[in-house]
Amino acid sequence: MVGAKSLAMVDGMTRRLPRWMLLLAPVLASCASAPMTKETGMHAPDFVRGEVRVTEHRGDDDLLSAGLGLAGLAGTQSTFASLSKPTAAELRRRAIQTSWKGIADLGPLGGFGKVYGAVPNVPGREYQAFAWIPGAQSPHRVLLQVPDGFDRARRCLVVTASSGSRGVYGAIALAGAWGLPRGCAVAYTDKGTGAGYFDPADDTGVALDGGRAKRGTATLEFEPASVQHGNIAVKHAHSGDNPEADWGRHVLQAARFGLAMLDRAFPDQAPFTAQNTRIIATGLSNGGGAVLQAAGLDDDRVLAGVVALEPNVRVPDQGRALFDYATEASLWLPCALADPRFDGAPLARTPKGEVPPAWAQRCHQLHEHGLVSGTRVAAQASEAYEHLRAGGWTDEAMTTAASTTAFDLWRAVTAAYASAYMRRGADDMPCGFHYSAIGAKGVPGVADPVVRAGWWADASGIPPGNGVGLFGGTDHSADATLPGARCLRALWEDNEASTEALRDGVAATAVKPARASLPVWVVHGAADGLLPTAFTSEPYVDWLRGKGGHPLYWKVPYAQHFDAFLALPGFGDKHVPLLPYGYAALDRLWAHLYDGAPWPAVVPVPTPQPRGSGELTSASLGMPAAWTLGPK
Questions:
Q1: Where exactly are the transmembrane stretches of this chain (predicted)?
Q2: DSSP class of residue 576?
Q3: Is residue 188 a part of any domain in this protein?
């Protein structure tokens, strides 16, 4: 196999630096400088510490799918020859596959590769490093993919951030799938999240190549000062950096890393700058919020355009913060979903068509705590439903939020985010939560070496999952998760000094307005039950317009948050995927930047229809007339 051949990176000669690096020098003077490369004799950017790892990916190991192709990405999990000691190439292949499966619907009915999207073989090189923003305790991972078919005539750099808390490949199904085939280089950042879990049981974390390494033997993706009691330390939750507050800086730094690495890749055409290389920012979910944060911080006009899908974005004094509505959902939604209006919602009922017992018990517990007055589940569920409606939840958002509730995602997200906002470590997470390896009978134990070896490639960045459990915040009642849900909600609602750190952490995530001339397009599913449009995109678009901006906005009917969920029985037939609309918006931005097409003041809204029980069709997507989305 050709691929993952590491090239040595040290030498001693500087070349002319791009202007943006000169401007950044005073700000980054406190950061250690990185080694130079034999490839061109150029210094790495000052915000990079340690090596820049360069690997080649050709033949059966390409950039977009690590040689798996569409069928391989959709197929069974790729394997390791040695289960406990996977190679860097094996880890990379599985990380790419995991990222694709976590974001896209690759199922036989989903239409990927037929109605929209494609996974061609894209040979090229990767440049990867650890980067630090000023004051950070832990790095964020940056990665540039440079296709051999890079279009030197129309220089293009796509910059993106991972969705959710995923690792560095977390947006490959959006940014990589759109950008690489058309000759763009693609710069990624994990934005201070990712699955670089640290395990004190063997004192190991994740090295630059994705493999496990002991503390002190290599630079690690995340290395906490100390961890007691055998708790697993997770970068997003425990770095002490509140990374969400700096997601925009991570994105801009990734863009600058991308330009510097393009200088290395094509020294005869250096320097690559924002003036001669158009930089397109795109991301979805948390990655969508990250590129909008970057747009608001882009004082140097690095970005040429932004397309944000289903963004986790918070506008000052408008909308609602994620921690606010997620802790509310965690507490109230189990009962509200017991209302008969949700009888047909996917995952809202047991296989026998009954309300899950724990949800009925939640209604009883809300009554016991004086939060609802009804004495029967039906009345209690109705009150819980009306409570959420009063807070801005729509029926459509609640219906799809049944999946988030059934999978216990609200508790997982809010426990991790509370720790991040309050800058807590692995041993002092709020509300008694902690992460531990899952041992015998589901209790805390020691991680299986085979499972641990694959964490970087397999894990989502927020436990539980992949042999790591979320423990604490529970009791032995029929509604075991209620104590933690109530405690997390109280962190938001209380005004005590002890909870001030959480509110300060949330306040630090507020977005700043993008410049009025920057093309911005926000694409969001009307049925999003994780990041409802009423709390995120709609306040942002209205607010930015009030600041003189001209963002385009698509609120796509029947689209929800997780395209990957569309492969679940009874789920995909009620919805359409969101990715094709993101690709379409990026196509229009490309036409504007490279072909001179006017940037529209308004765009026709798609008119999709639910997929139904058959395969997705072009007609199901309801794209505006004359817009096509065949495989690229």
A1: none
A2: B
A3: no
271 upstream amide cis, omega within 30 of 0: yes
DSSP 8-state code for residue 499: G
Q: Is residue 420 part of a domain?
A: yes
Question: Distance between CA 18 and CA 256 in Å, rounded?
Answer: 9
CA-CA distance, 615 to 199, in Å (whole number)? 44
Q: What is the pLDDT of residues 247-267, one digit of tens each?
A: 999 999 999 999 999 999 999
Q: What share of the chain is helix, strand, coil (3-state, %, to 5)?
A: 35, 15, 50
Write the CA distances from 226 to 222, 231, 608, integer angstroms.
12, 10, 52
Neighbours of 120 (CB within 10 A): 14
The residue to which tokens 């020859």 are assigned: 81
Q: Residue type at 154? A: R
C-alpha distance across the termini of the chain, in Å: 26
Q: Under DSSP, is residue 50 helix (H, G, I), strand (E, B) or coil?
A: strand
Distances (CA, A) of 132 to 45, 146, 455, 606: 10, 22, 23, 41
In sequence order, the 6+-apart residues with CB closer than 8 A to the CB of 389 are none
Environment class of 13 (CB within 10 Å of its CB; exposed 0-12, middle 13-18, buried 19+): exposed
Is the separation of the CB atoms in 319 and 393 below 8 Å? no
* Close Cβ partners of 562 (under 8 Å, ≥ 6 residues apart): 403, 530
CA distances from 297 to 108, 141, 246 (A): 41, 20, 10
Q: Between these two residues, 628 and 413, which has the higher pLDDT value?
A: 413
Of the candidates 307, 254, 260, 305, the one whose C-alpha atom is nearest the C-alpha of residue 279 is 305
527 token code pair: 């049925």
pLDDT at residue 25, as a whole number: 35
Average pLDDT value for the chain:
92
What is the residue range of 398's domain? Answer: 322-433+472-506
Residues noted as catalytic = 285
Q: What is the pLDDT of residues 57-77, one digit of tens each?
A: 999 999 999 999 999 999 999
Per-residue pLDDT band at 34 (split at 50, 70, 90): very low
Residue 22 placed within a domain: no
**What's the number of domains the chain is made of?**
1
Q: Rounded to whole angstroms, how far apart are CA atoms 38 and 519?
A: 38
| DSSP category for residue 453 | H
Kindly state the average pLDDT of the residues 362-373.
97
Is residue 531 in a domain? no
Cα–Cα dist 394/387, whole Å = 11
Which string of DSSP letters, residue by residue, matches 74-132? HSSPP--SSTTS--HHHHHHHHHHHHHHHHS--STTS-BTTTB-------EEEEEEEE-
Residue 21: per-residue pLDDT:
36
